[in-house]
Structure formats: structure tokens, C-alpha cells
Amino acid sequence: MRESQSWTPFLDRLGDVATAAILPHFRTRLDVDNKEARGFDPVTVADRAAEEAIRAVIAAEHPDHGILGEEFAPVGLDAEHVWVVDPIDGTRAFISGLPVWGTLIGLKRHGKPLAGMMVQPFTGERFSGGPDGALYRGPGGPRTLATRPCASLADATLFTTTPHIFTPEEKTAYDRVERAARLARYGCDCYAYCMVAAGHVDVVVEAGLKAFDIVALIPVIEAAGGIVTTWDGGDPSEGGRILACGDRRVHAEAMRLLAG
After folding, report:
1. Would you say 89 is a known binding-site residue?
2. By three-state DSSP, how is residue 113 classified?
3. Which helix (H) or strand (E) holds 253?
4. What pLDDT does residue 35 have?
């Protein structure tokens, strides 16, 4: 049975506590830890504080719900409702002082993304999606989110966080899409997906994502009229190779190129 209730008010509460935990640390000289023995996967006190704050509210209000977060151990993953949280998606941007990071809060029901929100505490923006539609709130006032028509990659704006996220084989596939696109830009992490929902960007291609990188963004883009899948058209909710588009025509073209 399809769930019709609005989760936006509760998502807002979670966004509020995350904002309160994160903003005091942004553009300060904070310590940065590395979670990877090889490479660089940064985490800060702000990441941990925000996830702790979100988990506390969920545990108090919905103790029967599960939680999957980036910074702490999962709980209750067999529950009907599971929250999927990335307290700061784009920590590299965060520690660089750039406001293109965001808090991702998603809700799955029976394993399927149901509702989600991207909160950008510094700019005061929120992008949400779910059974009650897709909504932007921020400077300039609230408005409904809607993707834009784009029939061909020749007319498309394409984003990826960085070409360095791809393996050599994936990079070859990605390059075919980039060469076909009108404009390619790098960076922005979750912000690029929100720009798809807002009708400013047409395609995002990425790889190596985790569930907490994408679950919150799927309902936002889908409620705005777009499509999110894996590169081969499969379920994107576990992460992996992700293709997000505002128009199904450009999605089909990008899939063909990614497949070779």
C-alpha cells in the first residue's frame, strides 16, 4: 500500500537539528580526520555531531524505525521504515569553505525510497521530495521543483563530482557521455542532483556511491519529474554507478553511451 502522509515536517525537524550542529563549525579551523588508510575520506566533528543529533530525534519520535548513517553503526535495518542519513555530503567542499555540501536525510519504506530532503544550512536552502510532491524553500521564497525538458545530450548540462571517482573502465564510459554533452561541470556532490530537480542541470553521472549518498535525493528528483537509476537502469537505492536525469529521453541516450 502506498504511503500518502507528508514526512516534510519531520524532515524539517531533522534538518533543524543538523543545521544547529553543523553551522558553528563551517569556515572555522577545525580538525579533519581521514577515514581511509589509502586515499582521503575526510570526517569532522560537524559530521559526527549532526548525525548524532538526527539519530537522537528519530530514536525519540520513531523508536521502531531503523537508521543507516555514514558515521555510526546501523540499527534496525529490517524495520518497515529506515532512515538513511549523510550528515555532510560533500565534506571535502565543507572543509574547503565552499557552500556546495548538504545534509542528506532519506526515508525508505519496505526497502524503497519514500521521502527525502537535502538541507543546505549555510544558504538556508531545502530541497524535498515525497508523496506530497517536490518543493524548494530558500532565498526568493518557496516554489515547486520541476525538471526541465531536454531531448538530447547535445543540449544537456552534465555534472559529476570529479572524473577521479571512476575506474579506468568507468572513465572510458563516462567520457563518451561528456563528449556528447553541451556543457560539463565538476563538483557540487548532492547539490548537482538538486539542480537536476530544480531544472538547471540535466544529467548527473557518478560511481562508487553508497546508499546514504543517494537515497535522500531519489524522491526529490522523481517527485520533480526526473529519473534516477544505476547505469544499466536498475535500482539506485543501494548506490553504486548512478545516472540521474531530468528527462527520460536524455536518460536513455546516456544509458546507451555508458553501456558502450
Report:
1. yes
2. strand
3. helix 248-259
4. 79
Q: How far apart are CA 134 and CA 144, in angstroms?
A: 6
The Cα 1–Cα 210 span in angstroms is 27
Whether residue 22 is annotated as binding a ligand: the answer is no
Q: Is 165 exposed, middle or buried (0-12, 13-18, 19+ CB in 10 A)?
A: middle
Rounded to whole angstroms, the Cα distance separating 162 from 116 reads 24
Residues 6+ apart with CB under 8 A from 132: 6, 8
What confidence category does residue 38 fall into, taking pLDDT thresholds of 50, 70 and 90? confident
Record the cell numbers describing residue 207, joined without a space: 560511481
| pLDDT greater than 70 at residue 222 | yes
The predicted structure's pLDDT at residue 11: 98
Q: What is the mean pLDDT of residues 86-99?
A: 95
CA distances from 244 to 36, 106, 122, 207 (A): 27, 17, 25, 12
* Cα gap 146→106, rounded to integer Å: 19
In the chain, the domains with their CATH numbers are 8-144 (3.30.540.10), 153-259 (3.40.190.80)
Res. 1: pLDDT tops 50: no
Phi, psi of 78 (to 5 degrees): -95, 5
pTM of the model: 0.95
- Residue 12 among known ligand-binding residues: no
pLDDT in tens, 58-76: 999 999 999 999 999 999 9
**Cα–Cα distance, 106 to 108 (Å, whole number):** 7
Q: Is 33 marked as a binding-site residue?
A: no
- Quote the CA–CA distance of 46 and 189 in Å, as a whole number: 18
Query: Binding residue per annotation — 70?
Result: yes
